[in-house]
Specification:
Layout lengths: L15 H23 L4 H16 L4 E2 L3 E2 L13 H16 L6 E6 L2 E7 H4 L9 H15 L5 E6 L13 H20 L6 E5 L12 H7 L1 E7 L4 H6 L2
Parallel strand pairs: 5-6
Antiparallel strand pairs: 1-2, 3-4, 4-7, 5-7
Helix pairs in contact: 3-5, 5-6
Amino acid sequence: MPRKKKEESNTYSTPLWMTTYSDMVTLLLCFFVLLFSFSHIEQEKYEEVAESLRAALTGLPHILSGGKTLDGAPVSVADPIPQEFRNVRDQIQELLVREDLTGQTEIYMEERGMVVSFKEGLLFAIGSAELKPEAKKLLREIGSILARDKHFIRVEGHTCDLPIRNAKYPSNWELSTSRATNVTRHLAEQVGLDPRRLAATGYAEFRPRVPNTSEENRVKNRRVDLLLLSSDNPFSNKMTK
């Protein structure tokens, strides 16, 4: 009787699924390398994000714009504010900390320049464009800082999406524009800023910071912004001619 040949069992040093998994990982790596090669990394933004991630993962103090912690202590971190704005930013920030107003204001960069943003309640009563007495004092102090600066300033009024209809303000357009105009006039007439550096505009509810989906968000959108235009902003170049 012929001897049956013993079937040889196939043996592998690694499981079969590992080969497919390795190929997939390699393809993903190539894909992300390709994406990275097409992208443009700004060093300041990269360092800021990296530092924020390190802080979140290691329990370090939360870092605010300007390279300071919540208690105002300086930290070693890439400053998101360009050098041309840092002096005026530091002075305004020091004033806001001294007056305990950091919770009602925000300083940040956007593509047009540096924004000093004031919540509605700090400057105006709801539905009003008349500056509060304490708002006039604050604007005088901030105006004295801006008077020593050189940037052109756009004062921009914003509202939430809740409608306003009365004899004085038929819509949010009139309310936001009146607020911006009153702040601008105060800076020019009471503080003494050069009117040629100033401009006022109102955007009503059409440029919200966050969606108007809750009262908390609407409070964030009701604001007046002082936009200090970057020196390379085309609008600044036109005003200097």
